[in-house]
Amino acid sequence: MSMEREDRAVALEYGSNAVPVIVATGRELMAQEIVAEARRQGVPVMHDAMLAARLSELPLDAVIPPDVYRAVAVVLSWVYWMEGREPPHETGQRG
């Protein structure tokens, strides 16, 4: 998943991680390249300036901090909805 604002982009990876991880960040031209590559790869792009600003402060390979769990959960639920699938459930739990 990729999020952008006019001059920033952040890419997150979630699938095999317990918590989403920052896998790319960039400003200006690099941000444009991150978004373009996400679109080429069929990765949904969400526009959220405040979340992109907060996440772009973090280093690569950092897990998202607890203060943005809720915001990222909303983004992830949007991604799953866009793709017509359900999020993975932890073993033994149904939700």
The main pleated sheet reads as: 4 strands, mixed
- Note the overall shape: globular
What is the terminal separation in angstroms? 22 Å
In the CATH hierarchy, what is the superfamily?
secretion proteins EscU
Structure, explained:
The chain is an alpha+beta fold. The protein has one domain (2-83): name from scop (3-Layer(aba) Sandwich). 36% of the residues lie in helices and 21% in strands. It has a 4-stranded mixed beta sheet with strand order 3-2-1-4, with helices on both faces. The chain is globular and about 35 Å long.
Q: Could you give a short description of this structure?
A:
This protein has 95 residues and is of the alpha+beta class. The chain has helices at residues 29-40, 49-55, 69-83, and strands at 2-5, 8-13, 21-27, 45-47.
Can you lay out the helices and strands and say which pair or pack?
Layout: E1 2-5, E2 8-13, E3 21-27, H1 29-40, E4 45-47, H2 49-55, H3 69-83
Parallel strand pairs: 1-4
Antiparallel strand pairs: 1-2, 2-3
Could you name the key traits of this structure?
95 residues; alpha+beta; name from scop; 3 helices; 4 strands
